[in-house]
Amino acid sequence: MSKRKIGIPYKKERCLLSDVLPYEVPVTFSNRDFYDFVLRNRLEVNGNKVLWIKGSSVLENIIILLLGLNFEPGRITTHKKFIGEKSEDVTEYKLSMDRKGKLSDVAGFLSPFSYKISHKENEFRELCVPHPRSQLKVVDFYDRFKETILSFTKNSPFSIRAPVRIAKFYFPNDGLHAKRLSVGEEIIEESGKEYESLKSFFVYKDYSNIYKFYESYRFHRSEKKYNRLIKLDVSKCFDSIYTHSVGWALLGKETQKEVLGKVKSNFPDGFDSLMQSMNLGETNGIIIGPEFSRIFAEIILQAIDQEVERALLASKKPIYNKRDYEVFRYVDDYFVFYNNQEDKDAILEQLQHVLKKFKLHLNSAKAVDYEKPIITEITMAKDQIARLLNEKIQFKLEKEVVEGEDEDLVKGAIYVNSNRLITDFKSIIKSCDVSYKDLLNYTLAIVERKSKLLLKNYLQVSQGERSEENLTKAIIEILDFVFFIYSVSPRVNTTIRICRVLRIYTHFLRSAKFNSGLVHTVYKQIFDNTSFILEKNRAGSHTQVETLYLLVTLSELGRNYWLEAEVLSRYLGLSHSSSLPPRELNYFSIVVSLFYMKDKVRYDEIRNVITDIAISRLKKRSKTLKKDAESIMLLFDLISCPYINDTIKIDALSIFGVSSSSDAIDIINFQTPEGKPQQWFTNWLDFDLGKALDAKRSQEVY
Fold first, then answer.
1. Is pLDDT above 60 for 540?
2. Pick from 237, 397, 227: which is nearest to 325 by CA?
3. Is 232 helix (H, G, I), strand (E, B) or coil?
4. pLDDT value for 399
5. What's the mean pLDDT in 598-603?
6. Residue range 18-33: average pLDDT?
7. Residues near 633 by Cβ (< 8 Å), separated by ≥ 6?
8. How many Cβ atoms are within 10 Å of 691's Cβ, its own excluded?
9. Prior bond of 373 cis (ω within 30°)
């Protein structure tokens, strides 16, 4: 049966859901409610003005706070505008100086919320969430230049991940699709394929995740055709990209210098200005995390690809693409297939030369060479791990024909030995000379698939033949294995994976009405292992996102599995008994800890400390609040949090210049048209962990 696809009306704002946030954010954080608010009020940044459908004075105050604007009545006018077929009263807020010079510019350079995640051994990667006003600027830019973007991302002879068209369809998440099980869950819209929900503004060719390339026909064909492969990448690519270089890529360096600043509406200058404005005017480096940053880099790297191919053809001894060599580039990772050393040297020399023109460099120190048979260490390890898990995690079914009965008798059992799994897994890591981080996501993806399959098989066993004890023991052994491999090297993507595995079992045990003692055994296993990981990986100033997912997962277990206050305090770095100095908690840690504690009495003291930290954080930034994304998102999640009192919320609003208590109360009590409290970046009231984890499936790139 062919899958039913549904066309979606084009909404320019939908990039708020797909292209402006990093993948590695807490599971409770999203733009869904912000998106609904923007859509409902037709809120937009259009050039030098902000527009929205005229509403109450409370709405006006909220928008001014949300976008970091000034409370200046002289900037605001109202006029009629057709929205669709309806004429509406629209409020216009002027950002720039008027012709008479009476209004100064509202701060154009905004500060993103920057935070660090674990990246490589003893290395961190800094990711950014743009300011809400910057996000609306991206909406405006996409709307004006979406076709232009596509015209500049289809020209590379090397790229294997690039936008090719605007996504227009999605598939309803019906029961048919819910039954689909696979290791390689779909990550992003791909050319030629549509998926259960639309998660990217553009459709991408050819591979939505880098590991799909390793398993592709094109990779295997190149292995046969060429004798050698070298893998390398651009050193600190996004940190090194010069924002003006998008103009160099599209117009040429000299032309760009002449044009720069003269025609503000042209595409390269507009993209350059956008990237600067959201990063405090910085020209050296672009923010890391959001998809639009990858698109910016892709446009530059496609121009480099084209120049490299032309230069190799024009050399004294021409080298032909797809005859003498083949290059595949996934974002900033290069795979160069070739036959002889002379060609390789020429390719790398030319690539280095062209990259240098754009102030970029190859990370030659970390280049890896392969000779025939071309098979990477990771590929070998993945193959062995897949075989190991397929062999060791099996729910075996047997059917018996019963005389006089319409249905066969189905028996089944599963036996898993976690110690054996752990030993074999470590042996594979050692023999293939790979690291845990290279294989954790893949391994947990297989465990996730196998977990769904074994529960499905368990339900096929005839009612009187099912053994809850046998299944529980297998679940315990599987959890032992996944917690062991995860605890070695926690990363955000692997944390998301392990949370999905945990939820498969907790959701099943709740819905299948298992023996309460057996359910407790599994829950205690999850609780004990999670507590151990939280103790081992306390929220630090560098990495706070990695384990915050586990806090939210713990809260799903129920009232018997809440952390002791002292354990939570130590994890957050607040404990008096700790020999370490108190840690500075960022926005994510503050909000997720409040989400976890809810209004439980046992956490009253910690909650007070956390809210004090939040208020102190706002006060320290009192001079830069409006341009600071972290402060604005913290404010809006504080005022919508149902677990703290209004006094704290009024205090937070006063720091932002809301001096009237009645105005503050109106902002705090602001509701949606359905009469529900307005949520912003954290869904405090009806959060669904399962849906949130499923939504993350579609967004991973690496």
1. no
2. 227
3. strand
4. 86
5. 96
6. 94
7. 113, 129, 132, 587, 680, 681
8. 9
9. yes
C-alpha–C-alpha distance, residues 145 and 140, integer Å? 9
Would you say 630 and 586 are in contact if contact means Cβ atoms under 8 Å apart? yes
pLDDT tops 60 at residue 194: no
Amino acid identity at 23: Y
**β-bridge mates for residue 87, sequence order:** 82
Instruction: Quote the CA–CA distance of 618 and 628 in Å, as a whole number.
Output: 10
Residue 474 has pLDDT above 90, yes or no: yes
Predicted local confidence at residue 491, as pLDDT: 87
Cα–Cα nearest to 304, from 161, 156, 192: 156
| DSSP assigned state of 242 | B
Three-state SS at 523: helix
- Is 659 within 8 Å of 697 (Cβ atoms)? no
User: How far apart, in whole angstroms, are the C-alpha atoms of residue 595 and residue 642?
Assistant: 9
Q: Using CB atoms within 10 A of its CB, is residue 133 exposed (0-12), middle (13-18) or buried (19+)?
A: buried
Within a 10 A sphere around the Cβ of 186, how many other Cβ atoms?
19
- Among the listed residues 448, 445, 433, 337, the one whose alpha carbon sits nearest the alpha carbon of residue 378: 433
Mean pLDDT of 603-608: 96
- Between β-strands 113-118 and 202-206, what pairing exists: parallel, antiparallel or unpaired? unpaired
> Do the Cβ atoms of 216 and 207 come closer than 8 Å?
yes
Residue 553 DSSP SS3: helix
- Residue type, position 330, single letter: Y
Q: Is 663 exposed, middle or buried (0-12, 13-18, 19+ CB in 10 A)?
A: middle
Q: How far apart are CA 448 and CA 445, in angstroms?
A: 5
Residue matched to tokens 């924002």: 243
In 332-449, DSSP assigns E strands to: 333-338, 368-371, 396-400, 409-413
Question: The tokens of 649 are what?
Answer: 């919320």
Q: Record the pTM.
A: 0.90
Query: Is the pLDDT assigned to residue 377 strictly greater than 70?
Result: yes
Nearest-angstrom CA–CA distance, 53 and 40: 9
